[in-house]
């Protein structure tokens, strides 16, 4: 295969120059920079359709970022686009309830067993923020236990040992978050129940909630070890704390009824985002009716939003979840991901590159390591970062778009057909060869 031109191209580079003059780092979310993979201009995107995104230089990429999770149907799914267009023609936002909000709420409650009542917000961050306020208000306790390498958005109290962009850029805490705000945040080790039991032994009657990503997707893709989620459930029950699943990433992706159905562990509160809005800015918090009615206006815990339940977001969410509900989307994805994973493993082996692939539902992660399984944050951090960077750039140059960080999960969609998988594996062959060359 001849060496392709390095991507992205001059138009992306020019836009990046302009962007940097008017926006910090040239991006509106740090996870989009290429700073974690050697810097330079990221691809600026013009449009996307199905499994592919197209940049402003005319390069097409098979996309495994999927807007960092929402695009499980593929980009520009016709039913979603039509629903949004139809709704847009009727007006953008009213500040008064609509039938669309009822419809999406009913869909969520129907699909997710633990959710009887739901409040719409505008992002995953807001969902996580609301979830912990709700847990604190409901229990009358202040402490929240989270896990190093889990990310719950840029919520002050949760921006401690965070994953995703904070991890990529080496700033897992943040200036601007007062110490007093994180005094009530306890940090345990993901997949290590003993570390959680220790925290409960020390602070059992002060812990309002354990907040966890049921599959850790902001330190690459790390599924829970056997018994971990069950153990969290039991510890929360023993100590009167609420178990909060942050399913912003895993919700409707790991399983049509969320990760909680896949693993058979029922949380008290669920934070949703990404897929629930079908690519529009939507988040949601759901729980039993009893817990949810702690929120205003039925209860004293205040939470509000001018644009919450936004008609375009609701329309996109309904058009997305109604396709996921019957299970056909996940059923279509599974064999494609099987082919992708076994193909990647075979090609890595052929080039002598140590690689482990982990997956859960329609998300997966590549680990450049000799270890056959990666379960802890320190094991993720110990993977070969230089190999990832070489792989990332070679894949990009060969037309495959991965997240520019070894700490992000990868996302596959229903639109990743056999052709897209084959294209990916051909690119991977060249990319593993580049990694092997060093
Ligand atoms: N929780 C999890 C598990 C996430 O992955 C993310 C975003 N990647 C968030 C919360 C924050 O969501 P948002 O970026 O929509 O605010």
Automatic annotation (TrEMBL):
One of its GO terms (molecular function) is transaminase activity. Keywords: Aminotransferase, Cytoplasm, Isomerase, Porphyrin biosynthesis, Pyridoxal phosphate, Transferase. Pathway: Porphyrin-containing compound metabolism; protoporphyrin-IX biosynthesis; 5-aminolevulinate from L-glutamyl-tRNA(Glu): step 2/2. It is found in: Cytoplasm. Pfam families: Aminotran_3. Its EC number is 5.4.3.8. The modification N6-(pyridoxal phosphate)lysine is found at residue 274. The keyword Transferase applies. One of its GO terms (cellular component) is cytoplasm. GO terms for biological process: protoporphyrinogen IX biosynthetic process. The keyword Transferase applies. Its cofactor is pyridoxal 5'-phosphate. It catalyses: (S)-4-amino-5-oxopentanoate = 5-aminolevulinate. HAMAP family: HemL_aminotrans_3. Belongs to the class-III pyridoxal-phosphate-dependent aminotransferase family. HemL subfamily. Homodimer. This is Glutamate-1-semialdehyde 2,1-aminomutase. It comes from Salinisphaera orenii MK-B5.
